[in-house]
Amino acid sequence: MKNRVNRVAVIGTGFVGSSYAFSLLNQGITEELVLIDLNQTKAEGDAMDLNHGLPFAPAHTKIWYGSYDDCSQADVVVITAGANQKPGETRLDLVEKNTNIFEGIVNGIMASGFDGIIVVATNPVDILTYVVWKFSGLPKERVIGSGTILDTARFRFLLGDHFNVDARNVHAYIIGEHGDTELPVWSHADIAGASIAEWSKNKTGFKQADLDEIFINVRDAAYHIIERKGATYYGIAMSLARLTKAILQNENAVLTVSAYLQGEYGQDDIYIGVPAVVNRKGVREIVELDLDNKETEQFTHSVEVLKKTMAPVFKKFQ
What is the rounded CA–CA span in Å between residue 43 and residue 64? Predict the structure, then answer.
């Protein structure tokens, strides 16, 4: 028997946090799950509700509501708390509000003696992941943002739907800021080893505008969902569960997370969505794709937009 079990702590039990906890339980990803929220009554209610589903879960999970002290033995802490994106508001509009909120959250986590991996899901995720890295003092590879993992999933789904192929057989990435300046890496997109260009040739009535529209729908998906139901949470919850599984099971999985660049893609001192190998130690390495000229320009622009928005954040840590 091993001496200890895997523990995941969720900070924030709003739509995203509670959906993520539900995903973890349904997939049997962790043995212990602690829910932490300023609204302790809500966190307690979620813990009770989730526990009542245990008889139907694939594996036993110990679930309870707790405090930052419970982070001391956690392997992964996932932060979903913070101000939500409102209709008409961009992810970058949330910077100042959530930076202030995160200082208190990270201080609470680290005061417990936590020494694991922090995953950030709150928007603007790339900037807040940088903030968590700075506030926490943890090594860069052990602070990971959800980045473009959901955008990539949306991309794969829409391409699969377009070509009538299972999305799990589509290999394509969205990189850059998780937001309006993200970009599709068409030069490396394929289905079963055949490029999207090859698949397009065989599609009756194909138009380039079809692929352009697919990307636009990926980029703007959150706005459409927020307009219809007020928030997005199922897709990101499943994405976070996938990332958590890759960490706890030491998978060395390639996922498009927000990772810290130190020269990769010609960029430095920035957290941004790129393919990365993820395992029990966090980000093992960045996968540096050979982008074409247009993609390189778009990625550089995405970095520049993030850095401009982050100017007040950079000053805070100088």
Answer: 8
Taking Cα atoms as reference points, which of 150, 191, 189, 197 lies closest to residue 173?
189
Annotated catalytic residue: which of 52, 162, 171, 178? 178
Q: What is the distance, to the nearest Å, from the Cα of residue 243 to the centroid of all Cα atoms in its chain?
A: 8
Task: Copy the structure tokens of residue 10.
Answer: 């969720």
Which positions ≥6 away from 2 have C-beta within 8 Å? none
Note the pLDDT of residue 94. 74
Contacts (Cβ under 8 Å, ≥6 apart) of 48: none
Write down the mean pLDDT value for the chain: 94
Please count the CA atoms within 13 angstroms of the CA of 235 that sit on its side-chain side. 17
Residues 6+ apart with CB under 8 A from 315: none
For residue range 139-193, list pLDDT tens digits in order.
999 999 999 999 999 999 999 999 999 999 999 999 999 999 999 999 999 999 9
Nearest to 145 by CA among 296, 7, 306, 299: 306
pTM, full prediction = 0.94
The tokens for 186 are 């068409």
Predicted local distance difference test score (pLDDT) of residue 312: 83
Residue 280 CB partners (closer than 8 Å, separation 6+): 247, 248, 249, 250
pLDDT in tens, 279-296: 999 999 999 999 999 999
**Which domains are delineated in the chain?**
7-145 (3.40.50.720), 149-316 (3.90.110.10)
Does the active-site annotation cover 178? yes
Cβ atoms 147, 173 nearer than 8 A? no
Rounded to an integer, what distance in angstroms lies between the CA atom of residue 135 and that of residue 125?
Answer: 15
**What contacts 201, CB < 8 A, 6 or more positions away?**
none
